[in-house]
Amino acid sequence: QQGLQQGLERGLQEEALRLVLRLLTLSLGEIPAYLKARIQTLSHEQLENLAESLLGFKNMGDVETWLQDI
């Protein structure tokens, strides 16, 4: 049961990561490797928060600032 729960949580995290990376790429262009690596370390909850916040981002500097503030 615990293994199933962990698997589900990992799946949700991976899907949130794919969505955030896709949205960032569509709205701001190619994501620098160092930012992509940092984003890949975020938890599911942090990825959800980033997805909401990115709606107001104007450039990659905004992404950097957001990541520094968490």
Largest sheet: none
Supply the number of helical segments: 4
SSE order in H/E notation? HHHH
Distance between the amino and carboxyl termini: 32 Å
What portion of the residues fall into strands of 2 or more residues? Answer: under 5%
Structural class: mainly alpha
Task: Outline the low-pLDDT stretches.
Answer: none
Classify the helix fraction into a percent range: over 70%
Radius of gyration: 13 Å
Number of strands: 0
Arithmetic mean pLDDT: 94
Topology:
Layout: H1 2-28, H2 33-39, H3 44-53, H4 60-69
Helix pairs in contact: 1-3
Summarize the structure.
This protein is 77% helix and 0% strand.
Characterization of this structure:
Helices cover 77% and strands 0% of the residues. With 70 residues, the protein is an all-alpha fold. The mean pLDDT is 94.
Key descriptive features of the protein:
70 residues; mainly alpha; elongated
